[in-house]
């Protein structure tokens, strides 16, 4: 007979890790890094129509302060890459990155010397959202998938290595 069977109704059993991870998914603080056309779709996602408050995201700011989710929307030029990396490093741990769109994920159609061929060359990416540009629904799908990832993560592994 397990402990659960001895407990009266109304008692919930779980682990601290599960509660903390659940809390993290309900209070993410996005740092919008809009760089090109994909940024317009990212901005739309945070408009009242899509109601990101449903996912615990009331505001998106262009600042690493307090942020734990960087959304890279658009192509990253080699000139912008060191700035993006520095801002990522300024975000407190634990932190996550979504590469939104073909350009942020792999350079898209810009296979040239000026564009970074994927933001994962400089920061670790957790979720890649496909499309050129992805619709707001696709970004929301990426955020929901990230939440699933966070729920399964180990707290001790929340410190990440830079790519
Ligand atoms: S993926 Fe398409 S829409 Fe997004 S930044 Fe690149 S060219 Fe623009």
Short account of what is shown:
By secondary structure, this protein is α/β, with parallel strands linked by helices. It contains 6 helices and 4 strands.
Could you give the topology of this structure?
Blueprint: H1 3-6, H2 16-25, E1 30-34, H3 38-45, E2 69-73, H4 81-90, E3 96-100, H5 101-106, E4 127-129, H6 136-151
The structure holds iron/sulfur cluster.
In terms of structural class, how would the helical and strand content be classed?
alpha/beta
By DSSP, the count of extended strands is 4
Instruction: Give the overall pLDDT as a whole number.
Output: 91
Tally of DSSP helical segments: 6
Percent of residues in β-strands: 5-15%
The main pleated sheet reads as: 4 strands, parallel
Please estimate the helix content: 25-40%
Strand order of the largest sheet: 1-2-3-4
Shape: elongated
Head-to-tail CA distance between termini: 48 Å
H-E string? HHEHEHEHEH
pLDDT < 50 stretches = none
| Hetero compounds | iron/sulfur cluster
- Rounded to an integer in angstroms, the radius of gyration calculated over CA atoms is 18 Å
């Amino acid at each position: 007979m397990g402990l659960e069977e001895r407990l009266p109704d109304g008692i919930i059993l779980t682990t601290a890790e599960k509660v903390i991870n659940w809390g993290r998914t309900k209070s993410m603080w996005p740092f919008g890094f809009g760089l090109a056309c994909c940024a317009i779709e990212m901005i739309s996602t945070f408009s009242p129509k899509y109601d990101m408050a449903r996912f615990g995201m009331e505001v998106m700011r262009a600042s690493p302060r307090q942020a734990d989710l960087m959304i890279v929307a658009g192509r990253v030029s080699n000139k912008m890459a060191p700035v993006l990396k520095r801002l990522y490093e300024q975000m407190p741990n634990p932190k996550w990155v979504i590469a939104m769109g073909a350009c942020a994920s792999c350079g898209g159609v810009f296979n040239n010397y000026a564009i970074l061929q994927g933001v994962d060359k400089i920061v670790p990416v957790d979720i890649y959202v496909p499309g050129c540009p992805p619709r707001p629904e696709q970004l929301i799908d990426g955020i929901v998938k990230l939440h699933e990832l966070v729920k399964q993560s180990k707290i001790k592994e929340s410190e990440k290595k830079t790519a």
